[in-house]
Design brief:
There is one protein chain. The chain contains eleven helices and 13 strands. By secondary structure, it is of the alpha+beta class. The chain has two domains: about 110 residues, SET domain (Beta-clip-like), CATH 2.170.270.10; about 180 residues, no CATH class. Strands 1-2-3 form a three-stranded antiparallel sheet, with no helix packed on it. Helix 2 crosses helix 7. The chain binds zinc ion (2 copies). One zinc ion binds next to helix 1. One zinc ion (ZN) binds next to helix 1.
């Protein structure tokens, strides 16, 4: 049993698996939980509207300050670019090689998230800032002032690592495709990062493949107000919430820093399970069930699914 926030308690049993209960009565619209991304990525067409340092969305006008090497990250201004220099140095080389993957937009977004997650693992494993300084001539900025929003949350690779991957459900062919993707991602990263994050190349390939599965089963989409997806992030704190086709909470609000907040869609009782929806709830039952089975490997038994013809 684990407490995620004062409003939520994580429990585990044989029937419901891991699930989250509300620790107190909540009003409609109440914020239940917020989480910053452990790793995130944006589509190439929307990257110019997001500051890679603060994750602040621009109001319709493209940011013009960008990394001239990879051309994948944009900044609100020169100061943000400077703040981000050390962190971006670690990923820039891999981002520059992304076009060689010839992947579609959503897989490229996935690639950025996984590459960033692996880089964070290397940093947690003690990747030496002096090494980065030697290679790129960039010094680790002094903490406090210059640690980005998304690094200030105390999320770790360990939280990401413990997310469900459902890899045994993928089937040989589908999982093999993830293994191939994982190998390609590892090949993009400089050796000094891979060698700090993992002990052997076999471990690196497997962890990269499993990370892709974890991403697919746990990521949150970032959307525009018009509902178009602009990016995605892995936010382990929020991934513990189970699905319902008639959820009592929603987790779709993008805030400064890429933070996702979960809000109550209706009043929630103390001790009630807090659910969000993993699918489009307006779809017919058969479509919802097929979608959930294919992407999340379960047959939904929520109250809405138990009513015939809904
Ligand atoms: Zn770059
Ligand atoms: Zn359902």
């Amino acid at each position: 049993m684990k407490e995620l926030a004062t409003t939520i308690q994580v429990q585990e049993n044989a029937i419901q698996g891991r699930h989250c209960l509300s620790t107190r009565a909540l009003k409609k619209g109440a914020t239940i939980l917020t989480g910053k991304p452990y790793a995130f990525g944006f589509t190439k067409s929307y990257a110019p509207f997001i500051c890679a340092w603060s994750l602040e969305k621009s109001e319709g006008i493209k940011y013009t300050v960008r990394c001239e090497h990879c051309k994948h990250v944009y900044y609100k201004g020169e100061a943000e670019k400077q703040h981000h220099a050390f962190w971006h140095a670690l990923e820039c080389e891999a981002f520059r090689k992304l076009p060689t993957l010839r992947w579609n937009t959503s897989y490229l977004m996935l690639a950025k998230v996984i590459l960033r997650a692996i880089i964070r693992k290397a940093l947690e494993n003690g990747l030496s800032p002096n090494k980065v300084k030697r290679i790129y001539g960039i010094q680790l900025p002094t903490p406090a002032k210059t640690i980005p929003h998304w690094l200030q949350d105390h999320q770790t690779w360990s939280n990401f690592h413990h997310l469900v991957s459902n890899e045994e459900q993928y089937g040989t062919l589908r999982f093999r495709a993830r293994e191939n993707m994982g190998k390609k991602l590892i090949a993009l990263l400089p050796d000094y990062i891979v060698n700090t994050a993992f002990r052997t190349s076999e471990e690196a390939f497997l962890e990269a493949a499993l990370s892709i599965c974890k991403y697919e089963c746990n990521c949150f989409g970032y959307f525009t107000d018009a509902g178009e997806q602009i990016g995605s992030g892995v936010i382990p704190a929020i991934s513990f919430l189970n699905h319902s086709c008639d959820p009592n909470a929603d987790a779709m609000y993008y805030q400064l820093g890429g933070e996702i907040s979960v809000e109550a869609l209706r009043p929630i009782r103390k001790g009630e399970e807090v659910n969000i929806s993993y699918c489009e709830t307006k779809q017919a039952k058969a479509k919802r069930q097929a979608y959930l089975k294919f992407h999340y490997f379960f047959t939904c038994a929520c109250p809405k699914c138990q009513i015939k013809k809904r």
